[in-house]
Amino acid sequence: MATLVRACRKALTSTNTAQPLLRRGFAVESAAAIRESPDRVKWDYRGQRRIIPLGQWTPKIAVDAYVAPNVVLAGQVTVGDGSSVWNGAVLRGDLNKITIEFCSNIQERCVLHAAWSSPTGLPAHTFIERYVTIGACSLLRSCTIEPECIVGQHSILMEGSLMETHSILEAGSVLPPGRRIPTGELWAGNPARFVRTLTHEETLEIPKLAVAINDLSRSHFSEFLPYSTAYLEVEKLKKSFGMSI
Fold it and tell me: CA 48, CA 210: separation in Å to the nearest integer?
């Protein structure tokens, strides 16, 4: 009888020790079966959406335009060739169109919007023509800026305002609704008023500033490939040649 009891205890002990080993073996096998591929893209779902379609309207970005990774483009927004939109800017074309033409730049934390209609009868969309520089933290709403102009930092352009060719608005200025800055003039203040006429040399420097910022955007553009997972192939290519990433 005693021998039978000892045999039963031994069998129970071996079963209790074998069960954890079996569980551990199954866990290792299942982990190996679901191991992630090294080529799998690890998405960060905490990030914001950069391109936001609204109804039938989807933002359009030219192939050689630079749009920073944390910029928000929504609705009827068009970023033209050679243009650049810098970090933290928001372009919201939900009510009307926003157009940025060749070699213009929208600097950090600018906000561009457009109203349904303009009190001046001019088109209510926000239209920025070529070789225009918009300083950081500026607010533009349903305004028109003709070629080769500069808007200083922290400036505000209200509905229906117009900057004509070769004009400059100083930093921190407010251009009221329907106000027009004539060609070749410097305006400043709140509300903005005429200061002086620009010299010929100053007007020549306006497009040069836009081109310089465009050249700077090229170095940023090379760090952020715009489409899909192409950056993974670039990183593999760099590793194969022993280049630092």
Answer: 29
CB-count exposure of residue 148 (10 Å: 0-12, 13-18, 19+): buried
Structure-block tokens of residue 48: 């914001």
How far apart are the C-alpha atoms of 105 and 98, rounded to whole Å?
A: 13
3-state DSSP assignment of residue 151: strand
Binning the chain into helix, strand and coil, the percentages to the nearest 5 are 25, 25, 45
CB 129 within 8 A of CB 104: yes
Looking at the DSSP assignment, which residues form a beta bridge with residue 184?
Answer: none
Query: Reduced to 3 states, what is the DSSP secondary structure of residue 73?
Result: strand
pTM: 0.72
- Is the bond preceding 182 in cis, omega lying within 30 degrees of 0? no
* Positive or negative torsion for Cα 53, 99, 162, 123: negative
Backbone φ and ψ for 235, nearest 5 degrees, come out as: -65, -40
- C-alpha distance from residue 40 to each of 45, 48, 229 (Å): 15, 21, 10
64 vs 50, 85, 127, 129, 221, CA distance in Å? Answer: 17, 12, 20, 17, 8
Beta partners for residue 93, in sequence order: 75
Mean pLDDT in residue range 113-125: 82
- pLDDT value, residue 45: 44
